[in-house]
Amino acid sequence: MKTSRLLLFIAVCFTSNLCYADYSISGRVNISEEWQPQIFLAAINKLDDYYNAYPDLIVDAANINPDGSFLLQGSTLPPEKKFYRLYLMKEQNSEFDACFYGGDDHNFIHVVLDNNMELSIMSDASEIAPFGGYTVNGDYDNEMMNSLAELVYPTFYFHQIKFPSELRFSQEKLNRDLISFSDTCSSTMASLAAVINTDMDKYHESNSAFYSSFGTRLGSDLAENSYHEDYNRKMRYYYPEVKSQSSWREMLLLFLTGACLFLLWQNSSLRKKSNNLDSKKEQLPDLTEQLTKKEKEILNLITAGKSNKEIAIDLFVELSTVKTHINKLYSKLNVSQRKDAIKIGKTLI
């Protein structure tokens, strides 16, 4: 009995682990007295929030041990891959918006997570900054995010450049390097992060082909990801013609949908008429059996295009007699006009 209960308990635990996916981020950061012993995980829901840190973006937090080790884990993240920011705050900061770029104050990194991701992040103990010289182990996306960080973070020293031309050349070089990284990196998420780091305000005109091409790649690789539509909105902002093209496509799609609906309606109407005609054809033998020999003869003459006067001459009867026969004929055929009688007559020929 005890053995059965034990096996049942193990089975429940095992199936529970299968049902609930967990993310796990472990590692070590460089911690000192100037930093709060907590690490925060913030979601990047919109591409424009890549470098923003608002309190309502925080999805998890964990204490940092005296040796700098930490563990973040849970099962509350969305199933799709998204960008997240790991960061620390200084002791004097009471808000969750303190991010420092580079140097000894480098206190944040970006990672790619879903609800079933395990990452290990280790900072270089010889560095002073919390994330100084950090490495990531987990998956290819985050390894490429680390490579991108090595390209991006040194550029945060732009403010130390004194000469305008040197600053411009450095910015242009960074933009070229980011585009090259995006073009050659097989991780679409890391490539998207590189695109976000480019200065689209400044370079969207000279690099329109690149941004358009990357949009196509994003639609192919991450069509269902929320970042796809977010990127499309940015494209429509920088390139109004994309919006016009999109509107034109929407109008064309609407037109084609309307045309298809019209054809379906028309086809349905034709089928209905055909069914009615078939039904009438089925009824015709019954109708014609009700006609007298003289009425059938008159129906044939009407179908041949004869007038009442011509029918009277052909049958050697009075015109009033022809009219009487025709009225009875219309009544039996359930028609009120000559053209309808002619249609029925043609079906009998």
Quick recap:
The protein is an alpha+beta fold and 349 residues long. The protein has helices at 2-19, 140-152, 164-184, 188-197, 200-203, 208-221, 226-238, 240-290, 293-303, 308-315, 319-333, 338-348; strands at residues 23-28, 38-44, 58-63, 69-74, 82-87, 108-113, 118-122, 135-137.
Any overview of this molecule?
This protein has 349 residues and is α+β, with helices and mostly antiparallel strands. The chain is 54% helix and 13% strand. The strands form two sheets. A four-stranded mixed sheet has the order 4-1-7-8. Strands 3-2-5-6 form a four-stranded antiparallel sheet. Helix 6 packs antiparallel against helix 7.
List keywords for this structure.
3 domains, Arc Repressor Mutant, subunit A, rod-shaped, four-stranded mixed sheet, alpha+beta, four-stranded antiparallel sheet, Immunoglobulin-like, 12 helices, single chain, 13% strand, 349 residues
Question: Layout of helices and strands, plus pairs?
Answer:
Blueprint (H helix, E strand, L loop, with lengths): L1 H18 L3 E6 L9 E7 L13 E6 L5 E6 L7 E6 L20 E6 L4 E5 L12 E3 L2 H13 L11 H21 L3 H10 L2 H4 L4 H14 L4 H13 L1 H51 L2 H11 L4 H8 L3 H15 L4 H11 L1
Parallel strand pairs: 1-7
Antiparallel strand pairs: 1-4, 2-3, 2-5, 5-6, 7-8
Helix pairs in contact: 2-4, 3-4, 6-7, 7-8, 9-11, 9-12, 10-11
